[in-house]
Amino acid sequence: MLRTSRAEPCRVASLGGMDLNTVRDICDARRHAPWRTGDAWLGGGTYLFSEPQPHLRRLVDLSRMGWPPLTRLPDGSLEIAATCTIAQLSDFARSYDAPAAPLFEQCCRAFLASFKIWNMATVGGNLCNALPAGPMISLTAALDGTVLLRAQDGSLRRRKAADFVTGAGRKDLREGELLRSVTLPARALHCRTAFRQASLYGLGRSGALVIGALDPQDGSLAVTLTAATVRPFHLWFPLPPSADELRAALDGAVGALDWYDDLHGLPVWRRHMALRLAEEIRRELTGEAGR
Question: Which PANTHER family would you find in this protein's record (predicted)?
């Protein structure tokens, strides 16, 4: 029998996805209980309930933690709670006055998901799934985000979002550790950004996603590759590079085995598209596009 907290609905049934018939208990994350083998954090559940999870025995539900979805900090940075949904992020971006705000909506739209997913899927869940095409990984890596991780004993550590994802489906997350939030620095939020995405299909998963960010303070340029690669690649140039310099830097950073290979695109195609999109972004942000 599945056990849930008093007056708490059974999330297994309510999500309308796959039943997790090995899960025996759902507990409220507000009431701390010792972590044990077979536990998993439950945010929106859009991934957990999308396929069998035979190793799971208990879900620790974060939905009632009461974390503000988005918080503007005194230094101008922006904190995004792990439980912030894609719909909440999109709504916030419409009235956000930072120069990089359009990038939020562009990355939200890269989900190509139904309104059901938008209203349940969370920023933290997308990061922790660590899938190459995860657009919240693209957004937070491109804007120099830092994730806050909390261990079971309450201790905290921080990692750059670009370094948090270490491979396809792999992340720097220890047993029982929770991704609490991701913070985007004020300086990155004031960058001028450019976004490019490619897919093999009109409504298909991203095969290559490239983001550029031009810093108005010092003229530096950051180029971030995701979806085409097994993990994010965030390259920073103190001054905008030439086309040849950009291509050489990308080829030097991304090895042959770093290009992702699945039914959404072969590595050779992903590399071609990533290099092409990166050059388009370089030309857009440096003003060379119309020359």
Answer: XANTHINE DEHYDROGENASE FAD-BINDING SUBUNIT XDHB-RELATED, XANTHINE DEHYDROGENASE SUBUNIT C-RELATED
Alpha-carbon torsion (50, 56, 58, 64), positive or negative: negative
Q: For residue range 51-83, what is the model confidence (pLDDT) as tens digits? A: 888 888 899 989 889 999 999 999 999 999 999
128's CB contacts (< 8 A; 6+ apart) are 41, 171, 173, 179
Domain containing residue 43: 11-61
For the chain, where are the E strands, in sequence order?
25-28, 39-42, 58-61, 70-72, 78-81, 146-150, 156-160, 165-167, 170-171, 178-184, 192-198, 208-214, 221-226, 233-237
CATH code at position 108: 3.30.465.10
Q: What does the alpha-carbon distance between residue 193 and residue 71 come to, in Å, rounded to a whole number?
A: 22
171, 219: one domain: no
- Strand order in 39-42's β-sheet? 25-28, 58-61, 39-42
Q: Looking at the structure, do residues 119 and 141 belong to the same domain, yes or no? A: yes
Contact 264, 207 (CB under 8 A): yes
Model's pTM, two decimal places? 0.90
199 contact partners, CB below 8 Å, separation of at least 6: 205, 206, 207, 264
What does the alpha-carbon distance between residue 5 and residue 168 come to, in Å, rounded to a whole number? 34
For residues 206 and 199, the answer to whether their CB atoms sit within 8 Å is yes
Residue 158 lies in a domain: yes
In a domain, 87, yes or no: yes
Please give the tally of structural domains in the chain. Answer: 3
Cβ contact 133:141 at 8 Å: no
* Among 124, 159, 187, residue at a domain's last position: 187
Out of 61-65, 85-89, 139-143, 250-254, least confident range: 61-65
